[in-house]
Amino acid sequence: MEITNPYLKRVYEKTVASNPQQPEFHQAVFEVFSSLDPVFNRHPEYEAIDLMGRMVEPERMITFRVCWQDDRGGWHTNKGWRCQFNGAIGPFKGGLRFQKNVCDSVIKFLGFEQTFKNSLTGLPIGGAKGGSDFDPEGKSDAEIQRFCQSFMTALYRFIGPDVDVPAGDIGVGGREIGFLYGQYRRLKGAWENGVLTGKGLSYGGSLIRPEATGYGAVYYLCEVLKHENDTIAGKNIAVSGYGNVSWGIMKKAAQLGAKVTYMSGRDGYVYDPDGINTEEKLNYVLELREKHLHCKPYAEKFGCKFVPNAKPWGEPGVDICMPSATQNEVDLECATKIVNSGVKYYMEVANMPTTNEALAYLRAEKSIIVAPSKAVNAGGVGVSALEMAQNSERLVWTEEEVDAQLKKMMINIHKVSAEAAEEYGLGYDLVAGANIAGFKKVAEAMTEQGCF
Ligand code: 2IT
């Protein structure tokens, strides 16, 4: 992976120089730029309007203070962010992440990626991301509620159903979205529930939204398998993490005759040779997520192997790897193990789970097919956009209707990515194809709307 187009090279160097100490942001920009070389070589008009120089600069970056009180009366202050990265094709859209390590770099890389991902969904949503360095671990419900209320009090003036629509991400699930919406409604005095997605069903949430990221990833995987004249039935899958996304993958894989045999947590990984596929097991995964950041209790409960302080990669008998936890969880060492273990499909699911070094290595390996997170996980935000549509028309769609649209969306994302790569003579390169296809729509919208 390299950037050879002189204009893109200049923009990349300037981005690094003017955004010091933002390694994740630089990484995401490098990865996208390295795919866009052939596009900029063919379209000098983009350089003439400094399109890429504009695309790497967020339209707006809001930072704010979030003060909250713990249950013993102690006061705490956290940082809050909302990065409205690109609004050329629709209202800003993207999740909120509450995690200790959240910083400018993480928020910006996520917002940048979101712009291309949202474009790939084919729906009118711009790219954004936000969050806080608040650590939800060990906090009571009441503390979470106070934190969310304070966070929304600072944020509400910058968002709205036609302006910017946050949702969940790591550390922000249904409970947090509920508290955030409650506070928004209290402050606005109006029923604007399209302002957030991932809501509970009783106040405008969409069926299938909790499952959407995982289901979408599996639908996309099925398209890749179809392209390779292969099928999902009988496949063994290793995932990392056991959050909302992994849970959706487990559920859909089970429905389609495949099984997830590995999952991991902060404490190590679990190997369940029978698959994490029964209702009891799947419900326990959900329960686990609410209580701990550890997966060992699963191994104890279901009598299977637990390996402490290790990642689930490179074990024998795995056909498909789906890293679904967090950024940069797969480095070159993990990637080498994955290839050596004979895995045929590497599907990124978490946002940017692979270091650029590992990604370059995997993409160069002939024995493995690599698919990028901005395509594979786009079903999550895609169904968020369907939730917005339902809120706008004040209607509720059936589970079948949402699921059918999600499936159609994922089939199309795979198709347009494969076609974009083909158009530029890159073969079946899903990474470059997703970047190019996502870029095209945003580039066209920005060009037609003039310079700003
Ligand atoms: O990374 C993502 O796409 C998300 N966290 C979901 C964002 C959304 O707006 O549903």
What does this structure look like?
By secondary structure, the chain is an alpha/beta fold. It folds into 3 domains: 50 residues, no CATH class; 132 residues, Rossmann fold; 164 residues, Rossmann fold. 50% of the residues lie in helices and 15% in strands. It is built from 17 helices and 12 strands. The strands form 2 sheets. The protein has a 7-stranded mixed beta sheet, sandwiched between helices. A hairpin with a 2-residue loop joins β7 and β8. It is globular. The model has no long low-confidence stretch (mean pLDDT 97). (2Z)-2-iminopentanedioic acid (2IT) binds next to β3 and α15.
Task: State the main characteristics.
single chain; Rossmann fold; alpha/beta; binds (2Z)-2-iminopentanedioic acid; 50% helix; 7-stranded mixed sheet; 452 residues; globular
In short:
The chain has 452 residues and is of the alpha/beta class. The protein is 50% helix and 15% strand.
